[in-house]
Design brief:
This protein is of the alpha+beta class and 525 residues long. It has 12 helices and 18 strands. About 2% of the residues have low confidence.
């Protein structure tokens, strides 16, 4: 009589053992991460390490095709890879029980190393989730493999025709699955509640009125044309592009900002309450991501409230290079160790660069940097818009390369003059007659002077411009097109306040932002 199942069934069950062991490892790691910190979870740690080491073209591809879901896609990819490796280890354990279990321990060590290598690592405790998960997974794999190969010899066993303990294996596998599910659910729950102090601190924030409020949006700045981008982007719709797999939840009551470095005569250490007690400014500012393709969605306009950054720097004794200052680069660091470098001269040239505490009348959402983020009108976010900021160091471009510069992006990132057609959408089928073509144009800190629309290869026609709010916001435009039946191409271009017309030369987003004209093809019926 055989003492093991059919070879193919045996391999299938061994693969299942591997998956159950992997599930157990991740579940225990999730639970331990709740006691350490969510960022120490092996999926998050490995994902963060993967983001840091991913070539720029691959990152651009992910943002272009998956948008704000790029992090979800990355995590699903990691889980799929782990599942495949778990299957392989289950099959190895079938022949070499100890070797398969040792393989689980090896991958736990990889996760621990990834956690410790993160720039925001808090120390050896970050390795515990991966190590604890690996020990649990190795034990489950060793145990289940033993049940799979054990002959049915005890009383009451259900050996079946192959002579192995089917009932014992099914009970063991079910117990492992249920225990892992319960452990994982508890870990996820505890992780979801780990930021309660931060949530409470945000709920308690009452933004004071600005000493320098934003001017009312002028009449005529909002065209109200169906399909055009709303003048102010709602917080929930505002684009988010960053490297954080877990959104930091920072307790505003314990948060502090340090300003130090070259040319800082009087270092500052500020609390959130310190900022709220200062003279606040309120401004309408459009932000743009350098990863925004021609016609892309990574741009939004909001009303921000915060402290003028130049005032804080002057209080610390900082001078811009044009006035003899020693530092030409301001390096902002976030709580997740992201570093973003901005030109000191630009930050202090009179524009409304700020440390923002509010967005569209509310405290900053966690996804957009609560409690404090930095923004500088006229610069792409990768050189200006540090979220979850906690440290500002004055240094030089020659002395330090921040995160994105290390990966080949340009040191300085002034926003290029661009425009976009919001309506009609690509491949739309409007009816013949008058069709309203409309969209937005932007050239932050220079403003928009003119927008033109071309139909097919015809002449450029001036569009009607909405009233300009400020030089730092986008500007809506419209064009009444007498559409004739057939397939047509609509193209837009803008001219900024300096008289510079946006170039037709099409370039990729890397290394300093995309350029070119936005076009849509429609079929008129």
């Amino acid at each position: 009589m055989r003492t093991s199942p059919n070879p193919w069934v045996r391999r299938l069950l061994a693969a299942l053992n591997g998956l159950l062991a992997g599930f157990a490892a991740l579940a225990v790691a999730e639970l331990v991460a709740a006691a350490v910190r969510p960022q120490a979870s092996p999926v998050v740690a490995v994902g963060g390490a993967a983001i840091d080491r991913t070539p720029t073209p691959v990152k651009d591809f992910a943002i272009r095709h998956f948008g704000e879901n790029d992090k979800l896609v990355l995590q699903l990819g990691i889980l799929a890879t782990l599942a495949a490796l778990a299957v392989v280890l289950g099959l190895i354990a079938l022949r070499h029980r100890g070797t398969g279990s040792a393989g689980v321990l090896l991958f736990g060590a990889v996760g621990a190393a990834a956690a410790l290598s993160r720039p925001d690592s808090t120390g050896i405790a970050d390795a515990l989730p991966s190590l604890a998960g690996a020990v649990a997974g190795a034990g489950v794999l060793y145990w289940l493999t033993g049940r799979l190969t054990r002959p049915a010899t005890h009383e009451g066993a259900d050996p079946g025709e192959d002579g192995w303990d089917r009932r014992g294996f099914l009970v063991a596998a079910s117990a492992a699955a249920l225990a892992s599910a319960g452990t994982g659910a508890l870990g996820r729950y505890l992780n979801s509640t780990s930021g309660q102090n931060a949530i409470a601190s945000r709920n308690a924030v009452r933004l004071p009125p600005a000493a320098s409020p934003a001017a009312p949006v002028p009449a005529g700045a909002r065209l109200g044309i169906p399909g055009i981008s709303s003048f102010f982007t709602p917080n929930g719709d505002f684009y988010r592009v960053d490297t954080a797999l877990v959104v930091p939840r920072v307790d505003a009551t314990t948060w502090r900002l340090r300003i130090h470095g070259q040319g800082v005569a009087r270092p500052l250490s500020l609390s959130f309450e310190d900022l709220l007690r200062r003279q606040l400014i309120e401004r309408d500012i459009t932000l743009t991501c350098v990863s925004n393709e021609i016609g892309g969605p990574y741009i939004g306009n909001a009303r921000w409230i915060g402290v003028r950054l130049a005032d804080l720097l002057r209080e610390a004794g900082v001078k811009p290079p044009s006035q003899g200052g020693l530092a030409d680069q301001l390096v902002a660091r976030s709580v997740d160790a992201m570093t973003i470098g901005s030109p000191v001269e630009t930050v202090m040239d009179g524009r409304d660069a700020m440390l923002a505490v509010g967005m569209n009348g509310q405290p900053l959402p966690f996804e957009h940097g609560f409690p404090v983020r930095m923004l500088v009108p006229g610069l792409y976010g990768y050189v200006s818009a540090c979220k979850w900021i906690q440290d500002i160091e004055l240094t030089t471009f020659a002395a330090y390369d921040p995160y994105w510069v290390q990966r080949g992006w340009a040191r300085r990132g002034p926003i290029k003059t661009e425009s976009r057609i919001d309506t009609p959408k690509p491949f739309a089928g409007p009816r013949a007659g008058t069709v309203m073509v409309a969209g937005v144009a932007w050239a932050q800190h220079r403003g928009i002077e003119r927008v033109e629309v071309r139909v097919d290869d015809g002449p450029w026609n001036p569009a009607d411009l909405a009233t300009q709010d400020t030089l730092d916001t986008w500007r809506q435009w419209s064009y009444r097109w007498n559409a004739t039946p057939g397939t047509h191409s609509l193209t837009v271009r803008a001219t900024d306040g300096t008289g510079q017309t946006q170039t037709s030369t099409r370039t990729d987003t890397f290394p300093d932002g995309a350029s070119g004209w936005h076009s849509v093809v429609v079929t008129v019926t």
